[in-house]
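Action item from last week, closing it out:
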Amino acid sequence: LNPEGKPALLQRINAGVIILSTNADAAAWIVHTVPGFPIPKTAYTWPAAETAKGHLLLCLTISESQINGIAASLLFVQPIIHYNDIPETETAGMPYFRKLIKGEIPTLPPFTSRGSIRTENAGGPVTVHIYSKSETSKYEIYKKIIVRALKKTIKVWSRRDNKLKGDCRVSQRNIRLITSPASVSGHNTNLELDETSWAVSDPGSIFCHIDKPYFKDQAKEPSLAVCIENNDIFARFDAIAAQLDNCP
């Protein structure tokens, strides 16, 4: 998913996989930070160099009817399709998916997208909101997209530069940066060795995975956020966000 010709720092957008069954109404969308996964038609070997780093993999079990909505959001981030073997007969009613495979991108406004899907879960479906923007929008995704959509303060864990700071100027619309190192199930993790970028809402219940770090220059890049409304998932990540940097 690395855009060609982009600076190395900004190439680090995350990867994803869409899987569907050809004999049942069953599919999955995987979003992750693991380099080189998967390798088409080849057994995957975990890169030893990544063991010391923090990574994230989200696997959403969905019906096939949700795929077109996912594709509509992905169009804005201009992904490179490394491999596709989904039969066209399976996607005949998915116009956005077909555009995605062909490499088409939106050329007219709007240059942002908000969509929602529902997971398939016997214990109760989970709502997943997908926010995306094209590079033409020039929006900073954390403040201009996520905070505006959630209408809440967010606590952010992400690599950061010295340009984009936390923001506490607007009541209940703050961006608070999680202090590094942070504790994950009793193990310390620090931003220098963590490839993930995520946020939790305050007040709670929403966890967001973001495909770009908290850098000022990501406003010039396409970007995607996947936000999940689930108390259990939220609680796990909110526990990591126990310590916050002071507002600038």
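Closing note: Residues 1-13 have pLDDT under 50 and may be disordered.
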